[in-house]
Amino acid sequence: MRLKKIEELAEKGIPAFRNDFRISHRLGQVLEQYQDWSESKLEGLDVSFSVAGRMVALRSFGKAAFVQLMDMTGKLQAYIRKDSVGPEAYAIFKRLDAGDIIGVTGKLFRTKTGELTVLADSVDLLTKSIRPLPEKWHGLTDVETRYRQRYVDLIVNQDVREIFFKRNRIIRLIRQFFTDMGFLEVETPMMQPVCGGAAARPFVTHHNALDMDLYLRIAPELYLKRLVVGGFDRVFELNRNFRNEGISTQHNPEFTMLEFYLAYATYHDLINLTETLVTHLVDKLYGARKLPYGEMTINYDAPWKRMSVREAVLKYSPGISEEILNDTSKMEQYLREKTDAEVVGTLSRGKLLVMIFEETVEDKLIQPTFITHYPVDVSPLSRRNEEDPSLTDRFELFIAGREIANGFSELNDPIDQKQRFLNQLKERQAGDEEAQQMDEDYVRALEYGMPPTAGEGLGIDRLVMLLTNALSIREVILFPLLRSSKDTDNEV
Asked: What is the pLDDT of residue 484?
């Protein structure tokens, strides 16, 4: 039916897809500037407004109609009257549908109900929509369709648009926070010859001209630390990472992370900085420290709880004891009996401790909590703790039962670093596909000398989830990765 309308309009010389209409104001601008003006004050305003947007609502009364226009900045009502726009233009307007994009020119007035409205002197079709929008009383609620056809989701669901406006503001606030602290924002390679900086399986691609395989980065860490060696002692990057892993409500293979490095600092400094950053965001966004997340209430009042991995296991893991944690075989037995974890091969006590933590503790860390002192065998890039060399000066931040950030005092001893890379290579050869590769150039960089430094990665998507009360990561990513479907061409 809509295609037929396009043909009928063409027969009358009316194009369905014009590009010669220019706006004088965005809809939100009109509302912001004139929302509080009285009717008498509007009558004295000798200004003609040219606005445009998608018709998301249409109420027709024969010789007049109210339409609600929407653009990125907001919604504004227009009143289309036959005697104002002329019989010919009104006849064309009557052929239009909700979902079409139109341009309206006219003056402002208030309706009897007090709504700010444009009284149209002219109305022009700019884009004819061929597919109808979902019925307004049903909306677009099917989650799978919403993610696959995000363009429709954004048109009909105001709360979805608000999430991405808020995401944009969060990122701008983070960028300003670090810039004000004297950090330099940089960009590092997304295609890397050696994959490093995290424990994850990479995506592999091929460069034809150089005839070489490259990895999509799993983290920018090793490149950012090269910059610290080069004298950029405060750097940050808001970066896209790619990890060839499963998909869940908390994981998307392509995701955004903040990573930053601060020379002449320790992980203690980063703990304090992270606490300051997140509370700053909460204050700027809401002006309150207690925020809902699902059925929980998260209290962001500082200071936040701090405890070591071992302390957390002893506090939260059911039936655990010091005796078990001091015996490798008893730790393995505990994992088999108390969890669904698969214990494969011979694992170190440090790895077993972290497995117990992940299986029995993480989901209990609802309020903001810094977990510190991770074992060295799961922290190949972290500085050893001087009091206990089996541990590292590392922390992870947990909120609502999930990891939000990972930071540590950096290992800047090239001899120790090379040995840890060699240990990781042994683990890769033993079948661990997430173990890190040897990066000879990074070791060479450390040999030139990296100042004592602390660095951190903070997941932007998970942070946005918390600060927008979104329970799935797909709600905060505009185009999340989905399994291919034969139904993607179906109409909404």
From this structure: 81
Residue at token pair 């946005």:
464
- Give the pLDDT band of residue 492 (cuts 50, 70, 90): very low
> Which phi and psi angles does 160 have, rounded to 5°?
-70, -45
Q: pLDDT, tens digit, for every residue of 351-399?
A: 999 999 999 999 999 999 999 999 999 998 899 999 999 999 999 999 9
187 touches 237 (CB < 8 A): yes
261/140 Cα distance (integer angstroms):
43
φ, ψ of residue 122 to 5 degrees: the values are -150, 155
> What's the rounded Cα separation, in Å, for the pair 224 and 237?
8
Beta strands in 352-414 (DSSP E): 369-372, 394-399, 402-409
Residue ranges of alpha helices (H) inside 131-232 are 143-148, 150-156, 158-180, 221-229
- Interatomic CA distance for residues 89 and 80, integer angstroms: 10
How would you class 422 by CB atoms within 10 Å of its CB: exposed for 0-12, middle for 13-18, buried for 19 or more? exposed
Question: What are the b/e assignments for 190-218, b being 16+ CB within 10 Å?
Answer: eebeebbbbbbebeeeeeeeeeeebbbbb
Assess whether pLDDT exceeds 90 at residue 252.
Answer: yes
Q: Which residues lie closer than 8 Å to 430 by C-beta, 6 or more apart?
A: 345
Residues 6+ apart with CB under 8 A from 407: 267, 270, 271, 274, 394, 395, 396, 397, 454, 455, 456, 457
pTM greater than 0.70? yes
Sheet of 369-372: strand order equals: 184-185, 234-242, 254-263, 453-459, 402-409, 394-399, 369-372, 305-308
pLDDT in tens, 385-435: 999 999 999 999 999 999 999 999 999 999 999 999 898 888 888 777 777
In contact, 194 and 215? CB cutoff 8 Å = yes
CB 415 within 8 A of CB 372: no
Query: What's the CA gap between 425 and 436, in Å, rounded?
Result: 7
Helices (H), 181-266: 221-229
Closest CA to 249 of 458, 467, 402: 402
- Largest Cα–Cα separation, the chain: 89
At which residue do the structure tokens 């892993």 appear?
Answer: 245
Angle ∠(170,373,182) on CA atoms, nearest 5: 40
Closest CA to 361 of 308, 315, 307: 315
For the record, the structure tokens of 76 come out as 């504004």
Q: What is the rounded CA–CA span in Å between residue 133 and residue 420? A: 57
Alpha carbons 325 and 348: distance in angstroms, whole number: 12
The model's pLDDT over 45-57, given as tens digits with 9 standing for 90+, comes to 999 999 999 999 9
